[in-house]
Amino acid sequence: MTRFASQQSSADLSATFFKLEDSEDELRPSSSTARRRSKRAKVEIKAEVEVKSEETANGGGAAVSASASASAAIETKGNTNSRGKAQKARSLSASPQKKVKAIKQALDKPHPAPARWREAYDAIKEMRTRFPAPVDTMGCDTAKWKETDPRNKRLSTLISLMLSSQTKDEVTDAAVSKLRAALGGTLSLDALLTAEEHVIAESINKVGFWRRKTQYIKQAAQRLRDDFDSDVPKTVDELCSLPGVGPKMAFLCLHAAWDINVGIGVDVHVHRITNRLGWHKPPTKNPEETRLNLQSWLPTEFHKEINHMLVGFGQAICLPVGTRCDLCTLNTQKLCPSAQTVVKSKTKKTTVVKPESGPKIEIAIEDTATLNLPKEEPVSPCLSATSTLTPVPDDA
């Protein structure tokens, strides 16, 4: 856009001159050819201008201060990405406090007790005495058996519970034993704090989500040291504030570590079996709904033992797939509405012998045989088999 600047003549005040003025659009480079400047370049230019102005006004000493601040600003802008990566890396090893809502302890309206629940409960308890399960010897409450110090016992229980999610008891038990050996023979808080993450990871890499659980263990150990006097907390809300710990783990940890009974630990087995028994109307959708329903009507003295009992029952008889209703007495007593009739298929078993398997057996058949014939009258020696007898006439 062309602009003109007016200017009066110095010789004749009545005369006015107009001068062509360059517009900003003409001075500005076209958008198609201009290169986009980075934020760092802008900061550097601005910093140089500030430094020069400081030198002119205040001398060299102030210029040094301005230069330092300018270089700091440039460094801040230039390393934004690297700083973000560093913060992300630190966040993995830090011990942030998990923001958790208070765990609900009761329903607004209690769930009614199901009919004949005590008969079913006692029948399951009796079956558990006859059918052992992995939880009996490798459950999370057994992790403390190999420790002597009370704090280490409680810590072993907590670590075992943190590893147990999405993992079978056999794998969890082996991982805890391997971790204990890697830490020098005892599972203590100091050993966890000083251990490198790769040491923990190599010990627990058979459990589900082991990478995430490695971070949880390190973060939880720092929280125990900083916020809980290097010991396992004694409330559900405090336990749930630890990374990787949920309500089920919290209730079970209080049972096994502190012998505190404030609720029911509900896992997939308890959730599945109680719904199969028809104890929830309508059926519950998740373990937390199951826990609140059970706690509303099940007597408190059963809250601590029901998890261990139903977990073993679910491992041995009431399986997730292929349930053994043929072994369950609830089926014969008509106490389980989900009972299934097991039909055994009658199939003929055939034995196939491979040509190379076993030694070769040769059977020889004798050419002669001994026959036991009835006794006959002896034949005269003068008669042979080829002799011909001539009949004698009657009148001879």
UniProtKB/TrEMBL annotation:
Residues 163-316 form the HhH-GPD domain. One of its GO terms (biological process) is nucleotide-excision repair. Its EC number is 3.2.2.-, 4.2.99.18. Residues 41-55 have a biased composition (Basic and acidic residues). InterPro entries: DNA_glycosylase, Endonuclease-III-like_CS2, HhH-GPD_domain, HhH_base_excis_C, HhH_motif, NTH1. Residues 63-73 have a biased composition (Low complexity). It catalyses: 2'-deoxyribonucleotide-(2'-deoxyribose 5'-phosphate)-2'-deoxyribonucleotide-DNA = a 3'-end 2'-deoxyribonucleotide-(2,3-dehydro-2,3-deoxyribose 5'-phosphate)-DNA + a 5'-end 5'-phospho-2'-deoxyribonucleoside-DNA + H(+). GO terms for molecular function: 4 iron, 4 sulfur cluster binding; class I DNA-(apurinic or apyrimidinic site) endonuclease activity; DNA binding; metal ion binding; oxidized pyrimidine nucleobase lesion DNA N-glycosylase activity. Pfam families: HHH, HhH-GPD. Residues 19-98, 376-396 are annotated as: Disordered. GO terms for cellular component: mitochondrion; nucleus. Residues 77-96 have a biased composition (Polar residues). It is found in: Nucleus; Mitochondrion. Keywords: 4Fe-4S, DNA damage, DNA repair, Glycosidase, Hydrolase, Iron, Iron-sulfur, Lyase, Metal-binding, Mitochondrion, Nucleus. Bifunctional DNA N-glycosylase with associated apurinic/apyrimidinic (AP) lyase function that catalyzes the first step in base excision repair (BER), the primary repair pathway for the repair of oxidative DNA damage. The DNA N-glycosylase activity releases the damaged DNA base from DNA by cleaving the N-glycosidic bond, leaving an AP site. The AP lyase activity cleaves the phosphodiester bond 3' to the AP site by a beta-elimination. Primarily recognizes and repairs oxidative base damage of pyrimidines. Belongs to the Nth/MutY family. This is Endonuclease III homolog. It comes from Multifurca ochricompacta. The gene is NTH1.
